[in-house]
Amino acid sequence: MSTFKQQLQLFKNQSYSWFLFNSLLATLGNGIAYVALTWIVIKAHSTPSSVAVLMISFWLPMVIFGPFCGVISDRFHRISVMIVSNLVRAVILIACGFYLKNHYNVYLIYFVTFINGLMFSLYSPAVLTFVRELVTKKQLLFANTQLDITYEVGNVVGMALAGFVMAVFSSGASLIINGTLFVVASIALLFVKYESTHQHMEKRSYADVYADFKRGLSYLLERRSLCAIYSIQLFIFVQFMTGPILLAPFAHNILHTTAGEFGQIEASLSAGVIIGGLLNPFLVSKWGIYKVLIAETILGCISFRLFSMTHHFYSAAMIYFLIGLAVSAWPLMVTRAQQMTELNYQGRVQGVFNSLSGMSILLLYLVVFLIGDVISIKTLYLFEVLFGIGIVVLLVTNRSVLIKQ
């Protein structure tokens, strides 16, 4: 059976289809929230510092609470964790949307963003663990790539939808629609039926959360190869998430693009991620995961370097498409990490690396904020190249782990 047919085979699993539908709606909500909350702050405080505080408000919960959110996803029923995450976001966004119709308070926006980031920190490890229970081991790579494609489509459509709603109605209305999407996403999860493949932790007191976290950390630190695999996953994720920080000033100051052209460059990255996600299962079946990861990481290094040197919109869009192809390697590493991690520890291990990812992203935000006016934006792109080189080094030094089936 071809890899394409195997991917389609997944949709015969109705529970998986409902889960993917929930993921699409939740990501649509994230895309709308990102644009709406950022635009609300920019309209009132058109300074880089206000946007920086907004981004910090989102990522800080992952840094602080990420490991403990992983404990929760291991301890409790994961569908319940995802539903609670969606509903909390729904309530706070809808309430904020109604409040903004007649009032404005920047600290409320920061608070809403903080809660949104906290719930995302809770949702993320639950999803990456739950997908292992929903599909077979042979289907795991297909499920992860489809999930990644769904996230990319949801973000792009969500950001576009946010712009349309704010233009036609208001920023508050976009947040109300956003919250409604999270409600519908929660309803979709109620149709997911499955039999858990493991026993969740014994429901001990909340005081034992820290002890559970320490057990997960010990499990991770005792396995050097597992640390290396999750580190590669971390580097790819951080490279993907920090690219947009540099793109806006680069597009404005170097490429001199219009707002529409800037959006097209962003869309070209998404197109690359989607195409890469569709092709990667086939490429892995032919060449193996190690060769695909090496090839795509090197492609990323070269593409980021070329992108920093371009001065033309069309070449920038083409190169950014190649960058999208490169970062589509992330679900490959997620799959390999899942295969190497005991299911009962998956949430905690993923939570630790989510926290480290958030820390790395915040650090780069800080660097850009502090020296962005001093160092050329082209020079800052060297950080992305260095991330890629770090990934290549980790891949080469852990080759035996990656090629092991």
List the defining traits of the structure above.
405 residues; mainly alpha; Growth Hormone, Chain: A; 2 domains; globular; 17 helices
Verbal overview:
The protein has 405 residues and is mainly α. The chain has two domains: 183 residues, MFS general substrate transporter like domains (Growth Hormone, Chain: A), CATH 1.20.1250.20; 190 residues, Growth Hormone, Chain: A, CATH 1.20.1250.20. Helices cover 83% and strands 0% of the residues. The chain is globular and about 55 Å long. The model has no long low-confidence stretch (mean pLDDT 84).
Compact summary:
By secondary structure, the protein is mainly α. It has helices at residues 3-9, 14-44, 48-75, 78-99, 106-134, 140-168, 171-189, 209-221, 224-255, 259-287, 289-309, 313-327, 330-340, 346-371, 377-380, 382-397, 399-403. The protein has two domains: 13-195, MFS general substrate transporter like domains (Growth Hormone, Chain: A, Up-down Bundle), CATH 1.20.1250; 216-405, Growth Hormone, Chain: A.
